[in-house]
Amino acid sequence: MSAVWIDEAPAAAAPPAKTLKIERETHKLEKRLCRQVGQAIVDYNMIEEGDKVMVCVSGGKDSYGLLDILLKLRARAPIHFDIVAVNLDQKQPGFPEEVLPTYLSKLGVPFHIEEQDTYAIVKRVIPEGKTTCGLCSRLRRGILYRVADELGATKVALGHHRDDMLQTFFLNMFFAGKLKSMPPKLVSDDGRHIVIRPLAYTAEKDLVRWAQHREFPIIPCTLCGSQENLQRKQVGEMLREWERKHPGRLENMFNALQNVTPSHLLDGTLHDFKGLKATGVPDADGDLAFDPPQFPAPAQAMRIVPQG
Predict the structure, then answer these.
(1) d(CA 212, CA 36)
(2) Rounded to 5 degrees, what angle do the CA atoms 91, 162, 263 make?
(3) Which of 51, 258, 269, 271 gives 262 a disulfide partner, CB atoms 3.0 to 4.6 angstroms apart?
(4) 169, 186, 213: which is closest to 61 by C-alpha?
(5) pLDDT at residue 5 above 50?
(6) Looking at residues 124-153, what average pLDDT do you find?
(7) Closest by Cα among 89, 82, 98 to 57
(8) 194, 176, 198: which is closest to 41 by C-alpha?
C-alpha cells in the first residue's frame, strides 16, 4: 500500500473578474449607504447617547435597509443606543405573518409585532375604488406612537428616503399649492415623539440594489389592493424619467431643499416684504434681479459642427 503526502491544499482558483467587480461594487455601495445614513444622523442630530430607537419595519426594501444599516452603524458608533424593530400586522388578507418574526429572530434584534385589524376599518370606511392610503397611514401612525410609549422608545425611525422626500415636495406643489416636503426630523402631532428619517440622503436605486444583495424577505405592499393611479406613483415615474434623461437632476433638486432663500420667494410669513426699507448699505446677497441666473456648466459643452 502506498500513500502520497500532500504538504498543502491546492490553491483555490481565483474568482473570475466579473465576481470581483460585483464584490467591489457591493462594498462601495455598503460604504456609501453607511456614510449617507451616518451623515444624516449627524447633520440633524437624529440619535443621541442612550436613545432607544424604534425602527418601523413594514417588510419592504426601505425599512429592511434602514434596520440593516442602523445595526451596522450602532456596532461602531461613538455613542450607545438601543434598537427595537416594530412591525404592525394590519391583518390584510394573505399577509405572511411568519416572515418578519422569523427574519428578526435570526437577525438577533429585539422586536415587537403589533396586531391591529386596521384593514377592516379602512374597508368599512373607504368606498370601493377610492384611495385607502390616507386613512391607513393615519391609523398606522397613531398605533405606532402608542407602541413607542409602551416600549419606552425615545426616537421613531421611518424608512423614507431621498426620492420619497422629492416626491412629497412635488405632490404638495402640484396638488396642494405648497412648498413642503418630508422633514428629516420632526416632533409628532401629539408633541410626545421625535420621528427621524435616517435614509434622507439615500437614493432609492441604492436601496433596491442593497435589498437584492442582502436577499431581504420582501413582503409585497399590494395586499390591500393595487392602486396604480395614485398621484405619488405618477410623480415617482416623472422623477425617474428625469433622472434617466438628465443624470444628477434629482441630486440637484434635493440639494435645493437644503438651500432655501426665503427673500427670493413670495411667502410674507418667512420674509418681511412689507417692512423692507432702503438702508444705503450694500448687500452682496441682495438684489439679483438684473443679474443673469448662475447655473453650473454642463458636463460636456455643445459643439457645433459646420455642414458642407
Answers:
(1) 19
(2) 125
(3) 271
(4) 213
(5) no
(6) 85
(7) 89
(8) 198
